[in-house]
Amino acid sequence: MTSMPISERIGSHLKRAEQALGATKAAVLKPSGLTVPQYAALLGLDENPGISAAALARRCGVTPPTMNTVLKNLQDRALIERTPHEWHRNVLETRLTEQGRATLAEADEHAVRVERALAAAFTDEEREALVGMLGRCVELLEQERP
């Protein structure tokens, strides 16, 4: 078996970048009282009011049980409300409350600052190239799945 040094493994660089972004967002979201998964859920709900927990889990890249825990914590804080779907009584629709919208707005200011700082580190051409290369990574990795 041939080994490849970690410094040559693209996956390790992607993971380091993901971890750095996650840690930075966790730090800037802390004053809002949100975790990164809670913020992602609120953002997803803001863009898709009434979305089911399963669909929101897929959108946020977490498992349905994890999303249910996130949603329970948000509901306990009165940031979201969950009501039975009009036609499908066993499906809960999830929506932001006014307090949830206010908390998201505060948190989003901090998260957007991180995203803008990250974007500003690159020229327009570099950003476009990076987004394109990351997209190619996703496509290839999805094809490689067994």
Average pLDDT value? 93
Order of helices and strands: HHHHEEHH
Q: What oligomeric assembly is this protein in? A: single chain
Bulk shape: globular
Structural class: mainly alpha
Protein name: MarR family transcriptional regulator
InterPro entries: HTH_MarR-typ (IPR000835), MarR/SlyA-like (IPR039422), WH-like_DNA-bd_sf (IPR036388), WH_DNA-bd_sf (IPR036390)
Pfam families: MarR_2
Domain HTH marR-type: 7-139
Q: Can you offer a commentary on this structure?
A:
This protein is mostly helical. A hairpin with a 7-residue loop joins strand 1 and strand 2. The chain contains six helices and two strands, in the order H-H-H-H-E-E-H-H. It starts with 9 loop residues before the first helix and ends with a helix. The mean pLDDT is 93. Helices cover 66% and strands 7% of the residues. The protein has a two-stranded antiparallel ribbon.
Walk me through the topology.
Elements: H1 10-29, H2 36-47, H3 53-60, H4 64-76, E1 80-84, E2 92-96, H5 98-120, H6 124-144
Antiparallel strand pairs: 1-2
Helix pairs in contact: 1-5, 2-3, 2-5, 3-4
Could you give a quick summary of the protein structure above?
The chain is mainly α and 146 residues long.
Give descriptors for this structure.
two-stranded antiparallel sheet; single chain; 66% helix; mainly alpha; 146 residues
